């Protein structure tokens, strides 16, 4: 089924002249790497390609080849094909949504389990380690060579979505793809340095504030931390720079669920990370959010203390639920 859809996508892209590619809001390495890899390949094949990234890419990712061509908004005119990459639901396209949906043919390439599908053709494989894994297969099908720039983008997608090849989605297949990408010119050490060792001073100062607020419950199975509007003001940091803080919480021995609460624009954004069998996506969904079983997010229109109480209560329920699937 996936294979058929993949062939249909390859055919649609071959026939297209004007193509729109879209990343999701709060862009991560996977959505940007997938869109850039596909975009560079299609441009090499002579297509007129616009790549829209509705939110500003985090600074650490600006080294990604082609990222200087990211557009904030969908350009005018008609597109033969649009492709949403790594988008778990239509809302993940943010303001780019209507433009993406207005193309003659709308394609989704994704590895989330989201129910809110909007594409005419779906290449959705929950077993794929990253959307970049699916784009890798698509480029093979299109017969497009993996240039060093394309390989670099796909490597970023795999590296970041597998948590540096540490998460449960790290398989022999994902490692084999990574090896082939290195063969094609992706520089693993240089990429890791860009992604993980170019943090701003403010980002590390915010990590300090988050860790200073650290609390635990459920005999250490649940940990949480917060960053208030005052913390953002005091450090001069932005929400994009809080990426990765949650992993410090999750790394504590015995932790089954880690939560990070951030007060941004008067609302509370929550990042959730879990260890199997706890399904944190179910917790996020209870508040209108979503994500993967072990990495999810949601936003609450409540003051910090109330948001914490609500999400902690729902998380405690999930921790007590016996053997949530996945
Ligand atoms: Mn992804």
Full CATH superfamily name of the largest domain: inorganic pyrophosphatase (n-terminal core)
Elements, N to C (H/E): HEHEEHEEHHHHHEEHHEEHEEH
- Mean pLDDT across all amino acids: 95
Rg from alpha-carbon coordinates = 20 Å
Task: Name the helicity range.
Answer: 25-40%
Strand count: 11
Global morphology: globular
What's the helix and strand layout?
Blueprint: H1 2-15, E1 18-22, H2 29-44, E2 48-52, E3 81-85, H3 97-101, E4 105-110, E5 121-124, H4 131-142, H5 148-161, H6 172-183, H7 188-196, H8 201-212, E6 215-217, E7 222-227, H9 229-235, H10 245-250, E8 257-264, E9 267-274, H11 280-285, E10 290-292, E11 295-300, H12 304-320
Parallel strand pairs: 1-2, 1-3, 3-4, 4-5, 7-8
Antiparallel strand pairs: 6-7, 8-9, 9-11, 10-11
Helix pairs in contact: 1-4, 2-4, 2-5, 4-5, 5-6, 5-7
Describe the protein in words.
The protein is α/β, with parallel strands linked by helices and 326 residues long. The protein is built from twelve helices and eleven strands. It has two domains: 2-196, inorganic pyrophosphatase (n-terminal core) (Alpha-Beta Complex); 201-320, Diaminopimelate Epimerase, Chain A, domain 1 (Roll), CATH 3.10.310. Helix 1 (2-15) crosses helix 4, helix 4 runs antiparallel to helix 5 (148-161) and helix 5 runs antiparallel to helix 6 (172-183). The mean pLDDT is 95. Manganese (II) ion is lined by residues 30, 86, 111, 130-131, 161.
């Amino acid at each position: 089924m996936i294979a058929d859809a993949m062939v249909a996508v390859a055919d649609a892209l071959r026939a297209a002249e004007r193509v729109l590619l879209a990343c999701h809001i709060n862009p991560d390495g996977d959505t940007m790497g997938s869109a850039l890899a596909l975009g560079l390949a299609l441009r090499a094949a002579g297509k007129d390609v616009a790549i829209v990234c509705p939110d500003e890419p985090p600074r650490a990712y600006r080294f990604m080849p082609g990222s200087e061509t990211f557009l904030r908004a969908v350009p005018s005119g008609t597109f033969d094909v649009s492709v949403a990459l790594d988008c778990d639901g239509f809302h993940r396209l943010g303001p780019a949504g209507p433009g993406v949906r207005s193309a003659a043919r709308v394609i989704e390439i994704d590895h989330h389990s989201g129910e809110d599908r909007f594409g005419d053709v779906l290449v959705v494989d929950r077993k794929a380690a990253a959307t970049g894994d699916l784009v890798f297969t698509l480029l093979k099908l299109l017969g497009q060579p993996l240039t060093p720039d394309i390989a670099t983008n796909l490597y970023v997608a795999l590296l970041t979505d597998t948590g540096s090849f540490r998460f449960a989605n790290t398989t022999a297949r994902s490692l084999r793809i990574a090896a082939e990408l290195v063969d094609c010119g992706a520089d693993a050490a240089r990429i890791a340095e860009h992604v993980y060792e170019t943090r701003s001073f403010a980002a590390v100062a915010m990590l300090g504030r988050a860790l200073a607020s650290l609390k635990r419950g459920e005999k250490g199975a649940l940990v949480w931390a917060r960053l208030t509007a005052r913390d953002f003001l005091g450090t001069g940091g932005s929400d994009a720079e809080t990426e990765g803080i949650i992993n410090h919480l999750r790394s504590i021995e015995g932790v089954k669920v880690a939560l990070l609460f951030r007060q941004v624009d008067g609302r509370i954004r929550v990042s959730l990370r879990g260890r199997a069998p706890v399904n944190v996506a179910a917790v996020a969904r209870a508040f209108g959010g979503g994500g993967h079983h072990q990495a999810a997010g949601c936003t609450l229109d409540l003051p910090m203390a109330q948001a914490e109480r609500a999400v902690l209560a729902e998380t405690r329920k999930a921790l007590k639920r016996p053997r949530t699937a996945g």
